[in-house]
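Crp/Fnr family transcriptional regulator (Brachyspira hampsonii 30446), 390 aa
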Amino acid sequence: MINYNKIQFKKSSIIFIDGQEAKNYFYIITKGSIISYNYFTENYDIYHKNGDIIGLVNSAINAPYFATSKAEEDSEAIEINIAELDKIDNVNIIEKIYNHISTLMELWLNQYYFIFSKEKNINCKKENTILEMAEIYKNNGFDDAALKLYNKYIEQNGETEELKKIISKIKPSNTACLVIEGIYKLDKGTCIFTELETTEKLYMVMSGKIGVYSIFNSKQITRIICSDNEVFSGYASNKNNDLLLTTAIALEDTIIKILKREDMLELVKTDRALREYSIKFFSMRIYNIMRSINSFKIKNIIGKFMLVLESIVKKEILFKETNTLNLKYNVYDILSITGVQYNEYSSREIKKIKTIKIDSDGNIMIPDIKKFMKEYDRFQKINFSRTEDE
């Protein structure tokens, strides 16, 4: 049982400061209202009211605050120490934290695509046809995803001779093999779901590797690469907002566990270790998204690449101690996230990063993480001082 401190905030008092090191606690507002000014994304301000949470993500992963938070009126909040996540017995608070993380992730994913579209001067909608999406996945070597999309097109529009010819050349992957209830074995290349399917389930990778992608602006964008014990999610189809929909593909032979969202919630209520793990993991996912948004402010390719790479490295070492990494993400994944096309120029620029090694397939190795972080700090000072001057 935790005795929560109640904290009073006078009107206009500053609670968190953008860029300040995170404190080891977060707040749940019980009275009044608080506003967070997000300077890095076109002054995108968020208003918090009674029952809302502030400061959780930064506290969970010990990352500097993304925003400056100020009391709009005399306000009150309960203070929770991040080290006591596993001691929380109040079911309502656990549900509130779980829902807060989910909502925040969706909010920033939508903002990511909005900024992406503005930077590229394109419509913030998925305008690619099913056939275009299928062709992109096929050209990138994901035949099973392409086949699922072609079959969906045929289901809606009927088959043509040209389509029949294309499909005849695609070898379908084996279907997922049920191991025990809720656990499936997938062969490399198997598509779990596409952007045209509704799935609100959670998928936990027990072994292997999954790539989660979406087609935007006629290009394949990497949303996340997951391996052992990491979780990714599907989303319900929404005609008014299809930006969150993704395609998930096994990048190697993989075993996954499929959970309903409500089942996951019940687990984190009772499994204290899982609760702490999942809050930190999803908080780091939000940090990854925020860094991807930040990358659009940077003008040069190295700066963009380093910013996203740093966030990926932090995710990789969140639960393990190591000074060497073979990343799950390759060069093409990271460039797609930043909206940069892979070509001779971008390849040449990335090779200027001294603390990483890239093989002929674009895979990235970091021999010394400490040296990489020092190089990252130098790039950050250069690039963020420039963006602030501009």
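The chain has a mean pLDDT of 91. The first strand starts at residue 5 and ends at 9. ok done for today
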